[in-house]
Amino acid sequence: MTKKLNFRQSLVIASMLFGLFFGAGNLIFPVSMGQLAGADVWQASAGFLLTGVGLPILGVAALGISRENGLLELSSRIGRGYGMFFTCALYLTIGPFFAIPRCATVSFTIGPGTVLSPQGQTLALGIFSFAFFAVALFLALRPGEILTWVGKVLTPLFLVLLGVLVLRALTAPMGEISEIAPQGAYASGAFFKGFLEGYNTMDALAGLAFGIIVINVIRTLGVEEPEDIAVSTVKAGVFTAIIMSAIYLLITVVGTQSRGVFPAAANGGDALVQISEYYFGSVGIVILALIGTVACLKTAVGLITSCGATFEKMFPSGPSYRVWAVIFAVVSFVIANAGLNAIIAYSVPVLMFLYPLAVALILLTLFGKAFGNDRIVYRWVIGFTLIAALVDFFNALPEGTARFLHITGAAQAARDLLPLGDLGFGWLCPGAVGLVIGLILHKRREAQEAKK
User: Fold this and answer.
1) Which helix (H) or strand (E) holds 383?
2) What phi and psi values does residue 323 have, to the nearest 5 degrees?
3) Checking CA distances to 117, which of 26, 48, 190, 195 falls within 20 to 30 Å?
4) Of the spans 91-105, 231-245, 335-349, which averages the highest pLDDT?
5) Nearest one of 88, 302, 315 to 207, comparing CA atoms
6) Environment class of residue 439 by beta-carbon count within 10 Å: exposed (0-12), middle (13-18) or buried (19+)?
7) Is 69 helix (H, G, I), strand (E, B) or coil?
């Protein structure tokens, strides 16, 4: 018997998916972008929404449409070795190396960190992050309850808390958007800068990772046919996109308007603290702390769950899911105590490397029917994209690291050779060249087989 999700079930799954996506970076980067973009906020927001909303939802849809059982199977269309490499790199990036630790450090930065002296920050971060990951691990060790915890409890609570702050800010704006001058890269290319800023949310990577969680939940609701699962996945993704786009725009506008009173803050966390305190005084800090902690906690739970399930499947003779979950929570706790600035500094080059590969894989999957999902097309596109992505990786390394490796000159020279390289899109043309070559070889193969 064929079963499809009803409207209410689709909405609950969309709430869960939004809850998994919307975490640390989703709070701090739009506010910071709004402050810096000023009057050009709408162009910047358009770019940001493409990478911050469009790509993540396309990633979930691609996994649903592909009918694969996870990212490993999907990326193995290029080859088993590449599949293992890309899956491990992606999950470690959105997992214990960057995204999960960032959840704890952002929660601390906009919460307890605002009222503590610099001398007590290190110890306080250690205590806070230990408690944070203890709760996240407790919930992650019950993966069967993720729909309830994230979709029905944490996400609605987060939306209520965030709504209090946003509505107050919008009804009493600090300044006029049209009067606020854009700063830095936003003054010359707001759309492109906003597009790259969306990388920092890591959501396109998370879309490929969270897709299997959504598919599994849909199956538990009685949907079994692959085609129905794909349709249900896309439907939930559309609802999620609408929710995320609206909230991103609201947060970004609040950030822009705050420039009427405050100068641009060092980061989005500091900007949120200023805004909350302006409207609600000391109570605002408490509200912000609750918003940040709930937002980041639900994302950390989803990431630990997703990473643990994937590594258990990738290494069937290795540790169990529960052991992997504990390992990832412990590693995340250790890295979180390096501090938010260090995490962000080293995550940027990794994202500049992984994002082009993720985008290429998503687009190839979505349009795979046009070339019969021929592996040769996948390989040529990914191969050329990977080379260009390495150039972006080396150019995005922290200055001290690049000098230590003695690659600054060579990396800049390679970037200058690539069209759009100075904008961070040096991978587009090589990827397109790989696509043309792959399609030519695919057509040639088809012609040879037709003659047999």
Assistant:
1) helix 375-396
2) -70, -45
3) 26
4) 91-105
5) 302
6) middle
7) coil
Average pLDDT of every residue of the chain: 86
Both tokens of 247, joined, read: 């909230």
* Segment 180-199, tens digit of pLDDT: 999 988 998 899 899 888 88
Q: Is the pLDDT of residue 159 over 80?
A: no
Q: Which helix (H) or strand (E) holds 161?
A: helix 155-171
Tokens of 2: 């064929």
| Residue owning tokens 């057509």 | 443
| Residue at token pair 């939802």 | 57
- 351-388 burial: b if 16+ Cβ within 10 Å, else e: bbbbbbbbbbbbbbbeebeebeebebbbbbbbbbbbbb
Q: How far apart are CA 216 and CA 211, in angstroms?
A: 9
* Dihedral (CA of 307, 313, 314, 318) sign: positive
**Is the C-alpha dihedral spanning 435, 437, 438, 444 positive or negative?**
positive
Q: For the segment 71-89, what is each residue's pLDDT rounded down to a tens digit?
A: 899 999 999 999 999 999 9
Backbone angles phi, psi at 184, to 5 degrees: 60, -140
Instruction: Say how far residue 58 (Cα) sits from the centre of its chain.
Output: 13
pLDDT at 121 over 80: yes
How much is the pTM? 0.83
Length of the chain: 452
**Closest listed residue to residue 241, CA positions, set 60, 54, 19:** 54
- Print burial letters for 238-277: b (CB count within 10 Å at least 16), e (below 16): ebbbebbbebbbbbbbbbbbbbeebebbebbbbbbbbbbe
Tokens 């929660």, residue located: 107
Tokens matching residue 243:
């929710």
Per-residue pLDDT of 390-423, as tens digits, reads 998 988 888 778 787 778 788 788 888 888 888 7
Mapping DSSP to helix (H, G, I), strand (E, B) and coil, where does residue 410 land?
helix
Integer Cα distance of 223 and 368 in angstroms: 24
